[in-house]
Amino acid sequence: MHDSIQRILLDEATILQRLNTLAAEITDDYRGLDLTVIALLNGSLIFGADLLRRIPLPLQIDGLGISSYEGTESTGQVKFRQTPVAQLQGRHVLLIDDILDTGLTLSTVRDHLVETSGALSVKTCVLLQKDVPRAHWIEADYVGFDIPNEFVVGYGLDYNEKYRNLPYIGILTPEAIAKG
Ligand code: IMP
Ligand code: MG
């Protein structure tokens, strides 16, 4: 285990096993439909790569750079680093993100796409859902795991852009948090 991690919440085998089920569900729901998956970056990079390789449908993939966190706190603002390039008119869209916390990020992007893209449907899929009262109204359509209200890193999730490449989801030591 990495020095900065005090506890592993979800190990790699557990994550991948859950992705098999989640991918099967998504495959059934979108069979025969024109699907574009939009991955919110950078957080859903690892999750998306593992999930989408388990979905044997002729889907399109696009990425959308977004940020709302500094350190371990939400800034309360969603910054778009670019807008999606894919043509979404007449297509079904599945937005994927690493974690549903306050709901700000996912609800902002979903509302933006619903209003501007001409997509036939916009659904959401997250690897993790935190057990907190959501400040912004959104319920993810697909959820990998429900987790307690703790700050987690790994498998795409970062602390100041670090730890994204850990193969598991873990909780940082107080020392690692203090170091920044
Ligand atoms: P929301 O907009 O508050 O729902 O937060 C969503 C974004 O905040 C996620 O895409 C993550 O980038 C970040 N985030 C929320 N909770 C955590 C966490 O526990 N660890 C790392 N990033 C988090
Ligand atoms: Mg993120």
What does this 3D model show about the protein?
By secondary structure, the protein is an alpha/beta fold. 26% of the residues lie in helices and 35% in strands. The chain contains four helices and nine strands. The protein has helices at 12-30, 45-52, 104-116, 174-179; strands spanning 5-10, 35-41, 60-70, 73-80, 92-100, 121-130, 142-147, 152-153, 169-172. The chain has a six-stranded mixed sheet with strand order 4-3-2-5-6-7, sandwiched between helices. It has a three-stranded antiparallel sheet with strand order 1-9-8. The chain is globular, with a radius of gyration of 16 Å. The relative contact order is 0.22. Magnesium ion binds at residues 43, 98.
